[in-house]
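User: Fold this; tokens only.

Assistant: Input:
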Amino acid sequence: MTKIEIFDPAMCCSTGVCGPSVDPELTRVASAIFSLQQKGIKISRYNLGSEPEPFVTNKQVNDLLMEKGPECLPVVIVDEQVKKIASYPTNEELASWTGIKEEDLVQQEPKTKLNITLNPKG
């Protein structure tokens, strides 16, 4: 089974929905990762700001950081091989690495809409 590790730069959260503006790329990646995890794909994500240990203990990532600095982040490792540096994987790349259909990585709108009517006390 495919194992994916994503080494993120230092940031407040991995979803991109915090702070004054939303980063659509982080939101897309978080959504794709969630979809893959729901399908049983093993994905680990590490944030340099809050989890520095994996950046030190993973020789490939440590070497990249020493050679290129933090500009090389994010680093994506698939089955212990560096597949991408300095940008997040596309949905097409994630699909090719995992065998999951690309369209299955995009969050779908709910099929049934939920309508809630609140009755004021009266």
